[in-house]
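User: tokens in, sequence out, please.
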């Protein structure tokens, strides 16, 4: 079986219509989903109009009161059944993710496990609604504080983690008692469609979750936000689009949650365990082929160990097997599309023009698909584009520093503040340094910070709010205070 037909097989059985009110709705217009390993189409998906988006809004608005009234234990049981079902179909989901997004099967399986954890976590959180009862300080009244579902939500998910980003948002919304419209990225809608069908099988009532696929994201989502019935928006994507959506939320005071761009520093101090640091660098850089907002973007390495670190990292990167994600030997799949590959070429060329040296890789791979060589550059200066722009690919640029205070200043000199990584042999100094880093998350001697039980999110222009952890459900809940006469 060729890679192209294997990708088509992985996508087989996915119903391409919209999901509105529990029904699959076909459309006259469709768009193609491409396999980035070949550039060939593997499916056709419904291209929703504004009117169809508003029909989905009618559906979630009608379903909202009944779903909010469902006992939290019942919602929890549905999510738990969904958790078991996702893991039971782990290989199906993994192959579908690889087919439409391009990541190797090993990474796709890891995404399925990670994404499923949000279903388990929020099944547990759903059954523990928080509230408070206390006397007022003056003794004149009793204060009752409760949380209740905010209402219909619009959830916009990215292409790079098509299952995990859907489960992270949907599980929190459903656990809170909210209904939701999901608008997946057009590059990777198939996984979301399959997951939505699984939720219906797990017991989510018709109308509670609707899926709208469209190429007209601005028109459809703009109309939904302008309508006035959407009460919550959760978006994962670029900072530029996030700014526009925040402005649109202002008209009806829609509560926004934003998980936006990143420019993660990866700091290696002079006393760091270099083998451990290189292991961490491979995870922080190459997880998802570097196509992650948490990917290490700027490698800041103490000058005394910079050459050794660079050599070790280049050796590890050069040894990676590049190939279609559905091939078992593949360790690095294609980037998502040709525009992404052209951006990588431009970033590398710009860095080299400003004095950087290529230690391995550095160019696109000829042939079908959108593959790019795993790349390491040294001597990247602060003025290089890759130092300020999100790379989103298998390219690592290394910049030396002379003392840790300098590294912190350089690390913080960005509009982004999602995640930072620090490798050090001194835990006390590492903790002090972490407190000085202007990032919502910091990994100390650890390159993987994402966890369903932890609050994921950034500061500055990397976003608003948190997903995951106990904090992740709060954005889907409104507080109500009731005063009782003493």
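Assistant: Sequence out:
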């Amino acid at each position: 079986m060729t890679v192209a037909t294997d990708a088509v097989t992985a996508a087989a059985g996915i119903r391409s219509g919209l999901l509105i009110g529990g029904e699959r709705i076909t459309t006259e217009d469709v768009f193609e989903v491409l396999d980035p390993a070949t550039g060939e189409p593997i499916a056709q998906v419904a291209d929703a109009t504004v009117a169809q988006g508003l029909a989905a809004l009618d559906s979630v608005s009608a379903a909202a009161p009944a779903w909010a009234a469902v006992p939290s234990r019942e919602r929890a049981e549905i999510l738990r059944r969904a958790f078991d079902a996702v893991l039971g179909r782990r290989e199906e989901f993994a192959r579908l993710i690889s087919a439409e997004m391009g990541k190797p099967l090993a990474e796709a399986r890891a995404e399925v496990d990670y994404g499923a954890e949000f279903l388990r976590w929020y099944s547990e959180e759903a059954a523990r609604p928080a509230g408070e009862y206390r006397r007022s300080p003056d003794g004149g009244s009793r204060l009752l504080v409760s949380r209740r579902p905010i209402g219909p939500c619009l959830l916009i998910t990215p292409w790079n983690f098509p299952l995990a980003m859907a489960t992270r948002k949907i599980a929190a919304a459903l656990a809170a008692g909210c209904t939701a419209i999901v608008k997946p990225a057009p590059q990777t809608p198939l996984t979301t469609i399959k997951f939505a069908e699984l939720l219906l099988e797990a017991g989510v009532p018709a109308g509670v979750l609707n899926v709208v696929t469209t190429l007209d994201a601005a028109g459809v989502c703009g109309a939904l936000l302008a309508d006035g019935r959407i009460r919550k928006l959760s978006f994962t994507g670029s900072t530029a689009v996030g700014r526009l959506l925040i402005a649109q939320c202002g008209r009806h005071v829609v509560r926004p949650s934003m998980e936006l761009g990143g420019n993660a520093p990866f700091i290696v101090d002079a006393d760091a365990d270099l083998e451990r640091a290189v292991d961490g660098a491979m995870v922080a850089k190459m997880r998802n082929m570097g196509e992650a907002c948490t990917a290490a973007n700027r490698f800041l390495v103490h000058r005394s160990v910079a050459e050794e670190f660079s050599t070790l990292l280049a050796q590890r990167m050069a040894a990676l097997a590049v190939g279609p994600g559905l091939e078992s030997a593949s360790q690095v799949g294609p980037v998502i599309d040709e525009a992404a590959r052209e951006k990588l070429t431009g970033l590398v060329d710009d860095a080299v023009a400003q004095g950087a040296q290529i230690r391995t890789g550095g160019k696109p791979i000829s042939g079908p698909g959108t593959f790019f060589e795993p790349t390491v550059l040294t001597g990247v200066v602060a003025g290089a584009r890759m130092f300020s722009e999100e790379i989103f690919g298998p390219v690592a640029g290394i910049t030396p520093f002379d003392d840790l205070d300098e590294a912190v200043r350089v690390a913080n000199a960005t509009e982004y503040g999602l995640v930072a990584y620090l490798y050090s042999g001194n835990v006390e100094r590492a903790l002090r340094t972490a407190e000085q880093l202007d990032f919502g998350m910091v990994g100390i001697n650890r390159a993987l910070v994402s966890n369903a039980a932890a609050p994921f999110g950034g500061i500055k222009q990397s976003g608003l709010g948190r997903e995951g952890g106990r904090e992740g459900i709060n954005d889907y809940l409104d507080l109500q205070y009731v005063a009782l006469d003493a």
